[in-house]
């Protein structure tokens, strides 16, 4: 039987939220929702810009919201397990019900801690989740960084750190600046979502990955490109803000046995996770509201 490659991407546009993170009413809700409030608040308040504070707060609330929705465990009782790699200064949080409380078998809940991945850019926060496989997600706003005057200038500067010759050639075959930029971000988000999924982050250089025009990814192994399709699937998607701002995104789903063993965030009852077969990812994009879902007095 082919395992389900359906994956949800929950996303939040913090521009739709009209209140400030420092408003007294929001401060009270933060205290009610997040455990170890002093630490959590410090992480949020370390940012100077309101948009950055909002994205940080949403990134901490969104996984807890999902676990609460599935298990009815209150936000602040949701456990956070950090799989640390101190030598690289990296960690990956895994969220789930409290370890001391068994899951209610009568409810539709996960048998193991699901894998989460979060990305944010320009006021948009996206979280991918899958109960069986490792997962990685990345989003990028389809906009040219301010210090550049053209997509060609930007891509030429990033080329040596990101692109293979074939990837650069394909991008350069497009004539319109926006098309060049979209293809660059398609490749960038594919590579970063794979880096997150496999568990190596930027310790795995982007130049050791190559994305073809169909979206499949290969990895440089012993000087040769090796397809990763047997253990990983990638799928690009697009998010749009009400003002028309577009975000390019990609999700990567991978068999846990193919992920870095020191980074794998949980073990399901059946190990290794089921084979992916030949299926492709089917994404469900699910908008989440800060005021209606994340910072409500109920479920605190």
UniProtKB/TrEMBL annotation:
Keywords attached to this entry: Acyltransferase, Transferase
Top EC category: transferase
Biological process terms in GO annotation: lysine biosynthetic process via aminoadipic acid
Domain 4'-phosphopantetheinyl transferase N-terminal as annotated: residue spans: 38-130
InterPro entries, A to Z: 4-PPantetheinyl_Trfase_dom, 4-PPantetheinyl_Trfase_dom_sf, AASDHPPT_N, P-Pant_transferase_sf
SUPFAM superfamilies recorded: 4'-phosphopantetheinyl transferase
GO cellular component terms given for this protein: cytosol
GO molecular function: acyltransferase activity; holo-[acyl-carrier-protein] synthase activity; magnesium ion binding
Annotated 4'-phosphopantetheinyl transferase domain residues: 134-216
Pfam family, one: ACPS
Domain of life: Eukaryota
EC number annotated for this UniProt entry: 2.7.8.7
Identification of the protein by name: holo-[acyl-carrier-protein] synthase
Organism: Perkinsus olseni
């Amino acid at each position: 039987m082919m395992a389900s490659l359906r994956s949800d991407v929950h996303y939040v546009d913090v521009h739709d939220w009209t209140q400030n993170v420092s408003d007294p009413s929001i401060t009270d809700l933060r205290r009610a929702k997040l455990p170890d409030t002093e630490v959590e608040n410090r992480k949020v308040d370390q940012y100077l810009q309101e948009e950055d504070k909002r994205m940080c707060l949403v990134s901490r609330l969104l996984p807890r919201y999902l676990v609460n929705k599935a298990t009815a465990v209150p936000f602040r009782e949701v456990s956070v397990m950090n799989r640390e790699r101190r030598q690289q200064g990296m960690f990956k949080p895994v969220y789930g019900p409290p370890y001391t409380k068994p899951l209610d078998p009568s409810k539709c809940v996960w048998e193991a801690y699901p894998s989460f991945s979060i990305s944010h850019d320009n006021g948009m926060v996206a979280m991918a989740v899958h109960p069986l496989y490792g997962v990685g997600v990345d989003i990028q706003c389809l906009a040219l960084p301010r210090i550049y005057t053209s997509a060609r200038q930007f891509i030429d500067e990033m080329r040596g750190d990101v692109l293979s010759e074939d990837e650069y050639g394909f991008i350069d075959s497009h004539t319109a600046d926006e098309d060049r930029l979209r293809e660059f971000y398609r490749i960038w988000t594919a590579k970063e979502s794979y880096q997150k999924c496999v568990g190596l982050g930027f310790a795995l250089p982007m130049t050791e990955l190559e994305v073809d025009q169909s979206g499949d990814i290969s990895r440089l192994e012993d000087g040769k490109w090796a397809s990763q399709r047997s253990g990983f699937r990638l799928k690009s998607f697009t998010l749009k803000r009400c003002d028309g701002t577009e975000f390019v995104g990609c999700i990567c789903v991978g068999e846990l046995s193919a992920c870095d063993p020191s980074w794998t965030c949980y073990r399901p009852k059946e190990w290794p996770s089921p084979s992916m077969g030949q299926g492709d990812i089917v994404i469900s994009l699910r908008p989440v509201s800060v005021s209606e879902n994340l910072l409500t007095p109920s479920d605190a």
